[in-house]
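Hypothesis: this fold can be encoded by more than one sequence.
Test: take the structure tokens below, design a sequence, compare later.
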């Protein structure tokens, strides 16, 4: 059953641009309670490369209105170089992606409809960058929900597992994403420059699988963005999607291992009186993919 009646009425901003310090603008679709300007609300950011205008359009229209109808701003932002966002994307989980995410959070917190508090949520790519940006500690980011992600990019993503190349899963996803990156931005939103933007992207489309083959050992390439390198960097509340049993099941299937067991074990192993004031984790099966669709 699709819920369409909420405690608060909702309005949607179909397309807006978030300015960054270097002149780049990232495209966003935002759902708000109707009275958010008078009664500001926390913002929940989903930050993906999967094209908000067409790739995740229908899924977003189910998830984010629900958040807005219950007193949050649902914000779906395309990563630099994707969809209608400016710039180029050269790799997954790049430092530039994290830098931009930190700026986006600051922009959201400063909007008149936002209470100054921001959270992040995401599945797979959005789960990864939620962890990575949390480790950067942007002041307004207070909580993340990370689903189908991991703390170790080398060992537990679609690239390598135990040193073995996951050719089927990795090649399948890498090929899909290569095709997605070859699509043009929407001329209705970008205007007359859409063709120039498209041609520049086509000339710089990243072939991720080639990058992965250049790094067959767990070197600095994989350590970047792997929060297991410094668990203590994350100070906000986070919720993970899996119990240890569920994580083991997903590992056996050759899929993303949920980050839950490692991070929860880390927190459990530290004396409570030594945990930073904002350091906490909620681990369980509440936010499974069947509740929050993985499409995109």
């Amino acid at each position: 059953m699709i819920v369409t009646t909420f405690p608060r009425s909702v309005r949607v901003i179909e397309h807006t641009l978030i300015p960054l310090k270097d002149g780049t603008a990232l495209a966003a679709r935002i759902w708000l309670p109707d009275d958010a300007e008078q009664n500001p609300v926390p913002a929940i950011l989903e930050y993906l490369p999967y094209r908000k205008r067409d790739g995740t359009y229908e899924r977003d229209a189910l998830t984010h209105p629900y958040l807005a109808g219950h007193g949050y701003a649902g914000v779906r932002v395309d990563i630099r170089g994707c969809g209608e966002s400016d710039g180029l994307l050269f790799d997954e989980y790049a430092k530039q992606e994290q830098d931009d995410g930190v700026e986006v959070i600051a922009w959201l917190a400063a909007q008149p409809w936002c209470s100054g508090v921001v959270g992040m949520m995401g599945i797979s790519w959005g789960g990864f960058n939620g962890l990575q940006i949390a480790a950067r500690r942007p002041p307004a980011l207070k909580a993340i929900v990370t689903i189908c992600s991991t703390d170790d990019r080398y060992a537990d993503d679609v690239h390598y597992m135990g040193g073995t190349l996951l050719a089927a899963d990795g090649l399948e996803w890498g090929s899909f994403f290569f095709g997605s990156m070859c699509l043009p931005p929407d001329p209705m939103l970008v205007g007359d420059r859409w063709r120039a933007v498209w041609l520049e992207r086509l000339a710089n489309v990243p072939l991720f699988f080639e990058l992965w083959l250049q790094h067959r050992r767990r070197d600095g390439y994989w350590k970047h963005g792997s929060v297991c390198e410094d668990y203590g960097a994350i100070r906000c509340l986070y919720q993970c999607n899996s119990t240890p049993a569920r994580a083991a099941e997903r590992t056996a299937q050759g899929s993303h291992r949920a980050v839950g067991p490692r991070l929860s074990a880390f927190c459990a192993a530290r004396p409570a009186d030594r945990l930073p004031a904002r350091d906490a984790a909620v681990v369980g099966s509440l936010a499974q993919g069947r509740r929050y669709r993985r499409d995109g």
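The longest strand covers residues 10-19. The radius of gyration is 19 Å.
Hypothesis status: open.
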